[in-house]
């Protein structure tokens, strides 16, 4: 029997008052002389805003929020830049400002695609080599898999007391439809040039040879991840073997293994960034945004959460994030997809 609780329409009856109010507001705005910008225009250039501090020298707060992906963000009303595009845009802008002496990388991500994670890692490494700017990571809820991968270029990693991190490994994600097709009596096939051309097609079960080939690819990607952990973190052989299991760790265990340098809060990470950059206690903490936010502070993620994908036409509850994932290779903790 179909589980009706997993098939709720996106616009439920409880949403009608909100939609009605929105429609009336749009009507009022259209009739009056005052222009109200209900939705931030992603075509606007990034602007610098100071969150705190007045002294010379700047620290840039650079967020990594949500799934790490190069998929454009799609909503019901408009499209937006991908998380990767937005991150690189901010880093490019920072390159032009010689007053920036440190980056406070605020990571709250379960990871993402292998390629997008590696691009951000490479961009951060290139930025450090070009500018000499120090990087301090402040981990929030989670910095797992790709979220940890992009943290590796940091000079110092600080985890929040409740952070979950680790999950150093790779996986391949795809849907398997052949069982459903058998049940409904639908067949599909390919005319192909080689025996592996339709490898891992969702329309048929993979052969043992194909599974072995795929595992080799996954192990290769996981091996690259582990080698970068070895490069950037001084770990004991026992700790490295524990990390290779690809399990995730709470902050205390991550500290014991050497995955992070300290446990603390955002203020502690900011203080350390000022210290290693040689800045004063009232040096400026800046952020790049496309719109003004009254009473802005370091915990504002409004303009920096770019999960990508399309809005679901059917509400699948906790299954929504998985349903929006593209088939491919990921540095991601799948246990956090409903986060």
SSE inventory with pairings:
Elements: E1 8-9, H1 16-31, E2 47-52, E3 55-65, E4 73-74, E5 79-80, H2 83-95, E6 100-109, E7 111-113, H3 114-131, E8 134-144, H4 146-149, E9 156-159, E10 164-166, E11 171-173, H5 178-184, H6 208-232, H7 237-243, E12 248-250, H8 251-257, E13 262-263, H9 266-277, E14 283-289, E15 314-315, H10 320-323, E16 328-332
Helix pairs in contact: 2-3
Written overview of the protein:
This protein has 339 residues and is an alpha/beta fold. The chain has one domain: 2-enoyl-CoA Hydratase, Chain A, domain 1, CATH 3.90.226. It contains 10 helices and 16 strands. It has helices spanning 16-31, 83-95, 114-131, 146-149, 178-184, 208-232, 237-243, 251-257, 266-277, 320-323, and strands at residues 8-9, 47-52, 55-65, 73-74, 79-80, 100-109, 111-113, 134-144, 156-159, 164-166, 171-173, 248-250, 262-263, 283-289, 314-315, 328-332. Helix 4 (146-149) links the parallel strand 8 (134-144) and strand 9 (156-159). Helix 2 runs parallel beside helix 3. It is globular. The chain starts with 7 loop residues before the first strand and ends in a 7-residue tail after the last strand. 31% of the residues are buried.
């Amino acid at each position: 029997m179909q589980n009706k609780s997993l098939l709720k329409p996106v616009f439920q009856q409880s949403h009608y008052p909100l939609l009605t109010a929105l429609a009336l507001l749009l009507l009022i705005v259209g009739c009056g002389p005052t222009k109200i910008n209900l939705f931030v225009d992603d075509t606007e250039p990034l602007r610098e805003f100071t969150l705190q501090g007045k002294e010379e020298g700047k620290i840039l707060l650079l967020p990594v929020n949500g799934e790490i992906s190069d998929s454009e963000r799609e909503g019901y009303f408009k499209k937006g830049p991908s998380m990767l595009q937005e991150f690189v845009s901010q880093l490019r802008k920072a390159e032009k400002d010689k007053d920036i002496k440190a980056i406070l990388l605020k990571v709250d991500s379960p990871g993402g695609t292998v390629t997008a994670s590696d691009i951000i890692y490479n961009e951060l490494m290139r930025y450090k080599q070009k500018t000499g700017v120090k990087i301090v990571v402040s981990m929030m809820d989670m910095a797992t898999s790709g979220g940890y991968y992009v943290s590796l270029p940091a000079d110092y990693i600080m985890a929040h007391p409740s952070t979950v991190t680790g999950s150093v490994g790779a996986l391949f994600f795809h849907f398997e439809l052949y069982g459903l097709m058998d049940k409904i009596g639908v067949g599909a096939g390919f005319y192909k040039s080689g025996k592996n051309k339709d490898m891992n097609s969702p329309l048929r079960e993979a052969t043992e040879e194909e599974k072995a080939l795929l595992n080799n690819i996954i192990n290769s990607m996981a091996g690259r991840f582990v080698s970068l952990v070895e490069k950037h973190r001084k770990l004991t052989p026992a700790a490295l073997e524990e990390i290779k299991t690809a399990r995730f760790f709470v902050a205390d265990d991550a500290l014991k293994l050497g995955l992070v340098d300290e446990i603390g809060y955002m203020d502690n990470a900011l203080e350390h960034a000022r210290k290693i950059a040689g800045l004063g206690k009232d040096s400026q903490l800046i952020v790049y945004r496309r719109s003004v936010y009254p009473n802005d502070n370091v915990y504002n993620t409004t303009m920096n959460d770019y999960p990508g994908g399309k809005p679901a036409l059917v509400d699948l509850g906790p299954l929504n994030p998985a349903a929006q994932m593209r088939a491919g290779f990921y540095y991601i903790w799948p246990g956090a997809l409903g986060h």
